[in-house]
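re: ur question from the group chat, yeah i did fold both. here u go
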Amino acid sequence: MASQQEFSRLALLASDTPRAQEAAVVLRDAYDWVPLHRADAVVVLGGDGFMLQILHRMLDSGRIVPAYGMNCGTVGFLMNRYRSPAKLLDRIAKAKAFGIAPLRMEAVLQDGSTVQARAINEVSLLRETRQTAKIEISVDGKVRLSEVVCDGVLLATPAGSTAYNLSANGPILPLDSQLLALTPISAFRPRRWSGAILPERSTVTFRIKEPDKRPVSAVADQHEFRDIAEVRLEIDREHQLSLLFDPGHALDERIVAEQFVV
């Protein structure tokens, strides 16, 4: 459990929504803040989308500090409940840290160029036109499905298993499960294939078949790359992120609770 002394320098970042901006005004008057590049931890006001933006900003900059979110958005799955700022430092000191390792994506485009990206929630392959996609799926170098005819397919981390993956009828994964969810999106063939649960150490490769006729894009969280030929995915252990949660509101508890929502 973290001590307050570990987080003596805090940064404050807020989304541009009215609710988050109002909360930021109150917090800025209540505490002293430092820029993110000088902080030991960051307080994030907004929703899950804004939290993902901040986590990606830290990944891109190479300076990663724990993030404590307070929900000023809609769902707030990655956030704590917003409360009065009076005991904020105490809450952060008592918060439980959860490590989240992103997916690393290496993609080859149809023109032969390569791109790289990281995804905290999932990487999704999606058809670009009315034509269904045809995708070959390999795990650790072995072809597991020679052809999936579908609208797309995605690979989700445990943290992202309750996002797009859940909407596509994929499994919810506990945060400490060390698993990945491989989930088809509107699969036509094979009709009965509902996806797979893979060890976190797996390397997954998607190869696009008939890419000229059936173009496919790859989306790593909010970053889209079009006209993909091949995508290689694996967990990036070198850039682990840390989210701070109040006791009793930890992400693993939310993942369990989400499975009983009716």
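okk and heres the other one u asked abt
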Amino acid sequence: MPDLPYLRAGSGPVLVLVHGYLGGAAQWQSEIDAFSGEYDVIAPNLPGFGAAAGLPGCSTIAAMAEAVLALLDSLKVPEFILMGHSMGGMIAQEMAAARPAEVQKLILYGTGPLGLMPDRFEPITVSRERLLADGVAKTIARIGATWFKSGTKARGYPLLTEVGAQASPQAALAALGAMASWDGRQALPRLTMPTLVVWGDSDRSYRWPQVESLWTNLPNVRLSVVPGAAHAVHLEKPALFHSLIRDFLQEGCGDNA
């Protein structure tokens, strides 16, 4: 597979941002702007999504992780800080399990260790049926509304639906199957790098039991719960989100910086 298209800005330690289902690198523009003054920020588009819509989508979470790692290899990135959102958080867990020595810090945001997502706003089988019936654009418009506390009125909703509608139908279907078959729970004790779990308290995709599983099974973890936010905290409450991320990234960097 050719290298994934990506957005990149800044210099310093490498910060890799992995988007979620029906996402794309363009959803991270606010984070790229916020952190590129201190970090070399790289945001890939996953195969079949966003600017990579022309590439065939992957049928497993592991294959998505391999695609991102292949991009980092081609860019000659030896080590990096890794953040994954939603399905991207599953991919980030897979990447960290595959190459733990390369992941300096891990941020698992709006995600969990079980792809089947118990207690999700709707079963993945229903999402698949409705995707086949409605198409990608209508699906992201419908599902995306559940990712915000204020639904379609949220300020980040237009960007989310615009980026999400770019996904190929093949990739959208394949990713649902990839999530449904993925279980990362056994790998959690091996992810010993400093880890931050971020969760909006109104998230309807990943409920508290998923988040609690990360919090209680990761060896070196802290938890930040964002009140009054749902699944897209970075678009709902960007200033607070950036503050939480920056605090975690700067910890352990020394008091003389």
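fwiw on the second one: The radius of gyration is 17 Å. Residues 115 and 179 are 4 Å apart (CA to CA). idk if thats what u expected
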